Give the backbone structure.
Amino acid sequence: MPHRPAGIHLLADLAGIEPDLLLDAAAIDSLLREAALAAGARILHSHFHTFGPGMGVTGVLLLAESHISIHTWPEHGFAAADIFMCGEAQPLRALDLIERALSPATRTVRTVERGQL
């Protein structure tokens, strides 16, 4: 019987983003919630923090299927997103939605298969 990964972990570096899109913790929370639902994940809790006017945001969305986290550097137009999902959730759908909203000029995505079932 073939093995399958316990989950898929996407590590996305998104650069060349309009800085204003990376400042608002509430907007980023909303974006990640929309991304989680698009992926078929169930949201358990979220926590987001802004570092002050003109500064970045860090946050995490805790999912029944694992998590989505993001760290932003508006002064560099950069965001690092971490999407780990198991079960039937589809993390690429979440990443696609995040990328459409942030419109990065460049992206680098690493995919890691976590565990074997």
User: Anything to note?
Assistant: The chain has a mean pLDDT of 96.
